């Protein structure tokens, strides 16, 4: 699903401290959350796995960075076919998930919703308890109850 080569690339691409809020440990928790939600919701695990690694790689700071999702999507397009292979439909889902993951949306394809919820469930790392009304899937909502 996610190659060691891609994981290494993403790790190296990240320019901030991996011990911060958006580093590799966060990506790992997003992956675990996403895997659990994807199984329950029948989402595309390949897209969810790619999202977990790529979603914060293009951040420029730990605080407000409204364009980091867009930059992550652009980066994903630039390495598709070289570091990972997915269909055009999967790329459209990944693009949407990456671009809008910080915008608070909840209406999307189940795979995109799974990506967003996987990330939102890890808000506890910054002292924020996820709210059910800001989650997309029933599986994620059940996880916070």
Structure write-up:
With 145 residues, the chain is mainly alpha-helical. 56% of the residues lie in helices and 0% in strands. The chain has seven helices and no strands. The protein has helices spanning 4-13, 24-41, 45-54, 68-79, 88-100, 110-120, 138-144. The mean pLDDT is 94.
| Terminal CA distance | 30 Å
**Unreliable stretches:** none
Strand segment tally: 0
What fraction, in percent, of the residue positions are helical?
A: 55-70%
Helix and strand element order: HHHHHHH
Average pLDDT over all residues: 94
Rg over CA atoms, rounded to whole Å, is 14 Å
Strand content: under 5%
Q: What is the number of helical segments per DSSP (H or I, 4+ residues)? A: 7
Shape designation? globular
SS class = mainly alpha
Q: Mind summarizing the main beta sheet? A: none
